[in-house]
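Field reference: "sequence" (input) and "structure" (output). Example, Vacuolar import/degradation Vid27 C-terminal domain-containing protein:
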Amino acid sequence: MGTAQSREDRITDSESDEGYEEEEEEEEEQYDDALSDHQNTQSSSSTSTSSGGNTPKAKWVISEKLTSYSFTKENGDNDENCWVLEVGTKVRVRVSTEMQLKMFGDQKRVDFVDKAVWALKFLSDEEYRNFVTQFQNCLFENVYGMEASEENKVKVYGKEFIGWMKPEVADDSMWEDADDLSSGSIPVKGNRELMEEFEEAANGGVQSLALGALDNSFLVNDLGVQVYRNFNRGIHGKGICVKFDAGGSRIGGSPSSSTPKKALLMRAERNMMLMSPENEGKPNATGLKQVDIETGKIVTEWKFEKDGADITMRDITNDTKGSQLDPSESTFLGLDDNRLCQWDMRDRKGVVQNIATSDSPVLHWSQGHQFSRGTNFQCFASTGDGSIVVGSLDGKIRLYSKTSMRQAKTAFPGLGSPITHVDVTYDGKWVLGTTDTYLVLICTLFTDKDGKTKTGFSGRMGNKIPAPRLLKLTPLDSHLAGNNNKFHGGHFSWVTENGKQERHLVATAGKFSVIWDFQQVKNSGHECYRNQQGLKSCYCYKIVLKDESIVESRFMHDNFAVSNSPEAPLVVATPMKVSSISLSGRR
């Protein structure tokens, strides 16, 4: 497999899409002329749309030089009243985060998506701010089913989270001090370029990516598990496809079983846990298979069981960020809709079960809790010390200490969208939640009554909780990402050592792999945050574009960051290919 040529034309910077005035200077002059004649027209504005469909050749075209807008209440799909935005005769869209509305306060303008990308420019700053306030109030009511009053906002967010409903009064000091608290972190200097190093065929049907911190990484697909060699410039295929046999059956365990959707490395990356959904369309599984990577054999087929009854799990993960490197690791974490637990592959006396004499080995429920009410857990992740963060269908993000899974130390309120994936930094100071239309970055740091700085995993955070920050695509990029443009799988870069700080964040949206500079997002003085109303939203990122929808994007372990690079390579997997992207700059 050879090295691919650099495809820098497929790797772009989000800032290049903001040339509304720059690219259309002539149209903008006409646009301003139209506005100057109608300065006193109430509820009026001008609209432009991006023509050319969702292709890179799309450009701005003036739709109406003078128009009007209104927010009206109508019956929705479920016969519930919902707010709709109407602009002139061409735009009628339900107020939601799917509009990807972006504010340009200095230009008195908003951009949003409704089948195309629209720009709406206002005649005065007062009218612009009035529109934004109305939009946010309508969005709140559409999401929570209640008027956006102060009383109702307190009901939704809680008194402790005043900064979430009034970001302008939030205590941002923890964001300001974040770099000082991250001792040993190395700032990223200069404007680094992205460059593709390797691209290889993945033999189709890629379901998941399991990156190793040692010699190898793995892709799970319809044929089996593809083995890749780790290098400091990315992963390179070894030409090995492990097709596991267990009683003559293929990787799924039986001919009717589905391809595993989850792969977890354990025991110094010599073992792999594979979990397949019990029913198509649902992630929950009744058990998993333990594979010896060196021999390619399924050594055990485990069942999930509690108090003699079969149960299911929707996700599994390692006890800590670095425990997959532990050769003696015998426990891992499990999550179901209303369960959070730790599984032990040893029997109750602490001895590893004898697989040869056990017909159907059962994992031991080591610790955990089965919640009686609907928590609707969706995803989880662990820190370097074993604390756990859990994301839920209602958008809540809960922090559990390493000593108790029964009650969350801190529960952050939802912002209206389900959390589909969650990650956390090694030190537990930052949590990244993924929703369909944005990522939410949360600072867990707080100062206790004794003046000590702690994280929300170790204690209740009180009432000085920093407001979160949102990471979004611009409306144009959201449109260009393709039909399947929902965010999924947001991750920090990967470190497993105290004192080292993650440097980037990555998420997938359609054909895009989107990369943010972590330090830039944390900087409260960042230019993205100027002239914004509501929660701070960052739109400065780099995009890696692929020919098909991306399955997963992950940074390799920090071990593989070379001396002239601010980051280890990024691995991007599509159903048919796997690519390695270097951040080490042009050569």
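The two ends are 21 Å apart (CA to CA).
The CA atoms of residues 249 and 255 lie 6 Å apart.
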